[in-house]
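#onboarding

Welcome to the new folks! Below is a worked example of what a typical request in this channel looks like: someone posts a single protein sequence, and someone else replies with the predicted structure as tokens. Don't worry about understanding the tokens yet, we'll cover that in week two.

Example request:
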Amino acid sequence: MGKVYTLAEASKHNTAKDCWLIIHGKVYDVTKFMDDHPGGDDVLLSATGMDATNAFEDIGHSSRARSMLSEYYIGDADTSTIPAKVFKHKLPKEPMYNPTSEFIRFFRFMVPLVILGGAIGVRVYTQ
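Example response:
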């Protein structure tokens, strides 16, 4: 077991020249990996200052990527300093289903098809 870091401590390392991530309660110094990350360094930088576990898991990293984490491990996260998940998005005030929008969506699909069908029909009958 390595040193234990708080979220505040890990959050200070949030640049391309000094980047730490918290994933599954462990702290990783990924600074040396910034240039090699397939998703680019912006992806890693956007995951600093928080628990990046969900971001890491949502991407579906390979077993090779998971095994690479051990190279960058520097310690454990003090999970008591990581806030509980909070909804960042407000729920919509109007209902999710809107019959009018379904009608409009249908016609956005059908109008080009009718035009295409008409053009093909004119082409066939004028030959």
